[in-house]
Amino acid sequence: MNISDVILVDEHDNEIGQMEKMEAHLKGLLHRAFSVFVFDNQGRMLLQRRALEKYHSPGLWTNTCCSHPAPGESNLAAATRRLKEEMGFTCELKEIGAFTYRTTFDNGLQEYEFDHLFTGEFNSSFETNPEEVDSYKWLSIEEIDKLLKASPDDYTVWFKIAFPIVKSYLYQ
After folding, report:
1. In the chain, what is the greatest distance between 2 CA atoms, to the nearest angstrom?
2. Which of 71, 93, 156, 168 has the fewest CB atoms within 10 Å, measured from its CB?
3. Hey, which residues are catalytic here?
4. CB burial class (10 A; 0-12, 13-18, 19+) of residue 31?
5. Distance between CA atoms of 131 and 142, rounded to whole angstroms?
6. What CATH code is carried by the domain that includes residue 101?
């Protein structure tokens, strides 16, 4: 398993190949990804501020963690692995949906992702990886709504798309 490769997919999430992650981002090719949203028993969502050294979206607030499954790795296994690598803990995760988005960053890289959404619950202490996470905070859905309206540029592109989907799932 080469975790620096991403899984290229078609618009229906059918695997069509593999490519080194940075090459896929330079070429803007559709690839599989995941985003994890962890809540505590008070219904607060755990947000992270991306490390300032990240190759895109540094210093922006986003969901608990996100990344790409490696070839041969399930979305759930990858989400669990990455949650441990970034946030320092694991919890039971459940897939709740998916969406596709495309954006170009100031550095010329593109994200074109078929993004699988996972939720989980965690209620203990943890220690984040400083290479991935600058800081974190627990916020209510209402607090996030207000902050997204007041300062949308403080949040990642995918979080602004995924958050309403997750919120809709929570309140169905």
Report:
1. 42
2. 168
3. 66, 113
4. buried
5. 29
6. 3.90.79.10
Q: 47 and 139 in contact (C-beta within 8 Å)? A: yes
Spatial separation of the C-alpha atoms in residues 166 and 97, rounded to whole Å? 8
The tally of domains found in the chain comes to 1
Contact 31, 46 (CB under 8 A): no
Q: How far apart are CA 110 and CA 117, in angstroms?
A: 20
Q: Which pair of structure tokens corresponds to residue 33?
A: 């990804």
| Residues facing 120 on adjacent strands | 38, 93
pLDDT band at 150 (very low <50, low <70, confident <90, very high): very high
Indicate yes or no: pTM above 0.85. Answer: yes
CA 24 to chain centre: 17
- pLDDT tens across 35-85, in order? 999 999 999 999 999 998 887 788 999 999 999 999 999 999 999 999 999
Sequence length of the chain is 172
Please give the span between the terminal C-alpha atoms of the chain, in angstroms, as a whole number. Answer: 37
Write the pLDDT tens digit of every residue in 122-139.
999 999 999 999 999 999
Domain that residue 113 falls in: 5-170
Read off the amino acid at residue 50. Answer: R
Which of 117, 115, 149 minimizes the C-alpha distance to 45? 117
